[in-house]
Amino acid sequence: MTFSLNEIEAMGKRAARGAGLPWGLAEEAGKAARWLTARGLPGPEELAEILTRNDGKSYDELAPVSAEGVWHAPSGRLCPLVAGAALCDRAAEIAAGREIEFGPTAQPLLLAPYAAGAARLTGAAVELSWAGAVMSFTPEGVSIEGDPAALTARSADSVQCRHAENAVVAPPVGAPGRVVDAETWSRLNAFAQRTFAPATEASRLAGAGAGLTDND
Fold first, then answer.
1. 207 CB burial (10 A radius; 0-12, 13-18, 19+)
2. For 64-107, how does the pLDDT look when each residue is reduced to its tens digit (9 = 90+)?
3. Exposed/middle/buried for residue 87 (C-beta within 10 Å: 0-12, 13-18, 19+)
């Protein structure tokens, strides 16, 4: 089925919230899925995969900590949705020349919308790279280099984010939406359904649903 960018963002936000992310991070996750989709990249697929991989893990297991300057997660692999938000908090430092190195990271492509956000916040060019892939961002657009398989790798052993010099980027195409396969949409919807409280006899009597009234 074909879904609009608004639909993809809304589903991504609900799915991330259903997977246990706080509302603020869930909203950013939905925007990340939209950003990737608008540039012809697999936003819903990447989001469905990371939510599935993280299912059952606590925030503390996924949040980045720093050891000798390299960010890593107690769970073994950084979550790009959590690490990406932390990356945006360091936007000014990156623009000033600081390089941030991530240790093992799941779904590294999901860091791209956050790196783009850092470029937008500071007006500086930002480069994100991992084995086989390099992405450069400015407020005007993005450039992507690398093998498609590397761009959509399930994991990267190391990811670097730094200020970029003389980045040449292309403006976004502005795709209105895209086809998302049924299996991916179903996975996202399963997480989104967790945000709805199950009906109880008390909630029905209080006015949720038909209650004891026969509406037929």
1. exposed
2. 998 678 999 998 999 999 999 999 999 999 999 999 999 999 99
3. buried
